[in-house]
Amino acid sequence: MASSLTLNGITKRHGAQTTLKGVSLDIRPGEFLTLVGPSGCGKSTLLRIIAGLMAQDEGSMAIDGQLIDALAPKARDIAMVFQSYALYPHMSVAKNISLPLEAQRLSLAGRMFGRLWPFSAATRREIAAEVDRVAAQVELGSLLSRLPAALSGGQRQRVAVARAMIRAPRIFLMDEPLSNLDARLRVQMREEISHLHRKLGATFVYVTHDQTEAMTMSSRVALMMGGEIVQCDTPAALYSNPQDLRVAQFIGSPGVNVIASDDLALWGPLGVRLAEAQITPMQFALRPEALRPGTGALTTRARIERREDLGHGQLLFCRQIDGNARLTLRSTAAELAQIDLSGGIIDISADPAQLMMFNAQGKRQLLKGLAPGAAVQRSAHV
Ligand SMILES: Nc1ncnc2c1ncn2[C@@H]1O[C@H](COP(=O)(O)OP(=O)(O)OP(=O)(O)O)[C@@H](O)[C@H]1O
């Protein structure tokens, strides 16, 4: 049975700096929850506190409703896979995988004298059977006698995962386990870890600064910034319904287009109405796919500063001519064939229903001034 993990007001200080500012999170049984955010936002610190490798200054944590704060790391029944994998280079794959079970089940003498210690033979056989079972699950069965140096990065990563799996922990913690791999292997391992999660049905808490990893693997993503969780939601909701401008800007590649009120007022009569309908100046945001070459309800003229070929279309990096907005749009080959790009100047139109609005503090606001049926329904009120 998978376990839940509840974090309640976790605070951590390092000298004068508050690294975690009262983080609360309910992680559901069997969930793949990813902590994502820029370097230094406190992801690894939070993971270490969950594992028991570091103590929080305030707050509490519970697994299946039972507090774990006072438990030593081993007693928490949590396994952690580190970025470095932390494999012992002089030990075989089988030995690396079996270590946690040996520590748990063998006496000190059994561990020291190995096979020479006759009283542990039955336990050793049990452990060897467990190693075979787990190694088969992560397809390492044929590599058990190798040393880590004779493995690829992906295989080493699987050894680290197998070592975590062998204790059948209640929760898996993974700290950037793919960051040492090349781009191709990272994609492959993303799929393998997702597959493993589905197969084990266990609760995974995964840390990465790579939003693509977070978006492709997770049930939910908690976006952290400056020691706080800014938003925790499904990948689709984080992308299409960000509640904070920092979330809109962190998620999505190429990034979201941000347009100031004054610049939106240059997008034709609807732009003027939308900008003026708000009491204070706002920031508007549009995903690249919400923009099209050509005219529409909201239109502005822009100079193309750079183009990137995507094969099936292009990314156009533009600058608004009258205003200051930088605009990136994704355009298909068919669309591009219809328009004259020779002068380097195009009309860009935006879908009003996809317009998002944020106040000066970056908090999502309900858009006023659009006809019913458009963005009013789409944008969630905070
Ligand atoms: N032992 C420590 N002593 C002092 N400061 C620390 C300590 N551990 C972490 N910090 C600080 O806490 C902040 C968060 O660090 P943490 O490693 O959790 O960030 P992160 O989000 O995991 O970043 P990265 O993606 O770069 O690993 C950083 O500013 C870091 O310098």
Hetero ligands: adenosine-5'-triphosphate
Major sheet: order of its strands? 6-7-8-3-9-10
* Average residue pLDDT: 88
User: What amount of the residues lies in strands?
Assistant: 25-35%
- Our Rg estimate from Cα atoms comes to 26 Å
The count of β-strands is 19
Structural class: alpha+beta
Main beta-sheet strand count, sense and barrel state: 6 strands, mixed
Count of helix runs:
13
Oligomer: single chain
The global form is: elongated
Separation, N- and C-terminal Cα atoms: 36 Å
Helix content, binned percent: 25-40%
Structure notes:
- This protein has about 375 residues and is α+β, with helices and mostly antiparallel strands.
- It is about 30% helix and about 30% strand.
- Strands 6-7-8-3-9-10 form a six-stranded mixed beta sheet, sandwiched between helices.
- A hairpin with a 2-residue loop joins strand 1 and strand 2.
- Helix 4 (about 120-135) packs across helix 5.
- The chain is elongated.
- The site of adenosine-5'-triphosphate (ATP) has 11 residues, from helix 1.
- This is ABC transporter ATP-binding protein.
- Keywords: ATP-binding, Nucleotide-binding, Transport.
